[in-house]
């Protein structure tokens, strides 16, 4: 009897979800096909340079999913499920104030945290929890109704949770139990055909379409699965050419001539899906909902806190120029100009200015020409080694998300903006609160990237026999 390790369970879980979602949302299959074509063509054009931010096999196979749950209990349960696949909570995202629309959720992402595990299979799931206790969105009466509705449902059966705990504790499962775990986990995220209470759903939808999608139905489901591409602008154009309506713009950094940073995302618009409704008079009849969409991403280099501060300043400057009427109101054009003014144009400059995270390899030719082939017993600064070409920066890929971009995707796929009362004070959530909710520490992405960079610098020093200062 074979034993499946966590990464093998994770890879199979991602594969099954992709197949299931493709059956539920056929346009997703088109998105995957076009993404594959874009990546293959980019590789032909760019050669080895195309794989600087990940091998073509990893990039083409890569997915992230998105789900939504309604309570702290459900969030803690889904954390147990994802732990069975070697996926841990990383990062805290508050989408409540990241959009002008009503998006009353706080989020984390479950993913592998070890670079080797990411290389084996980088599946991640952006997981949002309804902030049902936030009085800006929900009245006391509606809060209580939400609590009662969510308490009465079961998203994850006990057998699934027990198998998930066993897999996490044993770092895998034997084949028969692994198969059962995968069956139950996949089914937990399948779109249900249970009738939707029309009056209750519409009551929540008046507040937020996101709230109704979470708290207006008896199950959860995959909201989108996201392939990764190497040229998102090409993907956007090809999807439009196939007659698939995309959202108005690509979220995140603009396309420009310098290094790709952080994350760019876009999606096709949410499609009408057949659902069954139960009406106030007890009758059941078919109807439609528009809540699920197809997203695609292009990943760049992870930025340090200093780099993120610069990014935030560039976003703010872009907003200022747009408000002043510059660039004919086209965000991407304005942002490109800001990027060209503020952001270094090479990875080497990003590394020297400590704006992004990198691992380092040794260029033996530069070592020979600059230092006679050896630094044994010497002290050298990393900046000096980079400038002299001895330490070659290799970008660390940004594995996480951007609140404003996530909210922008949500907002672009909503039917209306919903309602919120900004005269009231919102409920406090942060990474510590999220850690309590999920029942395990939520990792700070920066600490993970810094750990990876530090390990590389240590290995660099050992390779050179030198004391490398930061």
TrEMBL record:
One of its GO terms (molecular function) is dioxygenase activity. It holds the Pfam family HGLS. The keyword Iron applies. The keyword Oxidoreductase applies. Keywords: Dioxygenase, Iron, Oxidoreductase. CDD domains: VOC_YdcJ_like (cd16348). This is 2-oxoadipate dioxygenase/decarboxylase. It comes from Arthrobacter crystallopoietes BAB-32.
């Amino acid at each position: 009897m074979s034993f499946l390790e966590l990464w093998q369970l994770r890879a199979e879980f991602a594969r099954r979800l992709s197949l299931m979602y493709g059956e539920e949302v056929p346009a997703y299959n088109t998105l995957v096909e076009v993404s594959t074509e874009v990546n293959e063509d980019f590789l032909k054009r760019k050669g080895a340079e195309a794989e600087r931010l990940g091998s073509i096999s990893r990039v083409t196979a890569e997915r992230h999913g998105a789900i939504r749950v309604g309570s702290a209990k459900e969030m803690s349960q889904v954390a147990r499920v994802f732990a069975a696949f070697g996926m841990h909570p990383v990062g805290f995202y508050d989408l409540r104030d990241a959009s002008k629309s009503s998006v009353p959720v706080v989020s984390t992402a479950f993913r592998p945290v070890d670079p080797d595990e990411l290389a084996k299979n980088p599946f991640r799931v952006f997981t949002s929890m309804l902030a049902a206790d936030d009085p800006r969105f929900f009245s006391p009466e509606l809060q209580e109704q939400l609590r009662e509705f969510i308490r009465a449902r079961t998203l994850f059966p006990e057998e699934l949770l027990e198998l998930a705990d066993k897999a996490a504790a044993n770092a895998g499962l034997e084949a028969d139990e692994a198969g059962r775990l995968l069956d139950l986990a996949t089914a937990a995220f399948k779109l249900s055909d249970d009738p939707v209470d029309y009056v209750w759903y519409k009551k929540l939808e008046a507040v937020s379409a996101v709230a109704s999608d979470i708290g207006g139905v008896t199950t959860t489901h995959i909201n989108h699965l996201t392939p990764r591409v190497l040229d998102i602008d090409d993907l956007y154009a090809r999807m439009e050419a196939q007659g698939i309506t995309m959202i108005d713009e690509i979220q995140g950094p603009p396309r420009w001539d310098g290094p790709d940073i952080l994350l760019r995302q876009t999606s096709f618009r949410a499609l009408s899906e057949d659902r069954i409704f139960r009406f106030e008079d007890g009758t059941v009849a078919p109807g439609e909902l528009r809540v699920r969409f197809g997203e695609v991403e292009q990943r760049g280099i992870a930025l340090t806190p200093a780099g993120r501060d610069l990014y935030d300043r560039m976003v703010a400057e872009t907003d200022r120029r747009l408000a002043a009427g510059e660039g004919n109101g086209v965000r991407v054009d304005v942002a490109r100009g800001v990027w060209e003014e503020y952001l270094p144009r090479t990875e080497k400059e990003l590394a020297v200015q400590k704006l992004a995270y990198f691992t380092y390899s040794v260029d033996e030719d530069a070592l020979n020409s600059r230092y006679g082939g050896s630094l044994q017993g010497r002290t050298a600064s990393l900046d000096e080694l980079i400038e002299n070409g001895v330490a070659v920066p290799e970008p660390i890929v940004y594995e996480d998300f951007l609140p404003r971009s996530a909210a922008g995707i949500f907002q672009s796929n909503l039917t209306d903006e919903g309602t919120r009362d900004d005269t009231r004070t919102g409920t406090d959530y942060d990474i510590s609160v999220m850690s309590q909710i999920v029942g395990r520490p939520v990792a700070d992405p920066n600490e993970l990237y810094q750990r990876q960079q530090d390990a590389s610098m240590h290995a660099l020093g050992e390779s050179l026999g030198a004391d490398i200062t930061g």
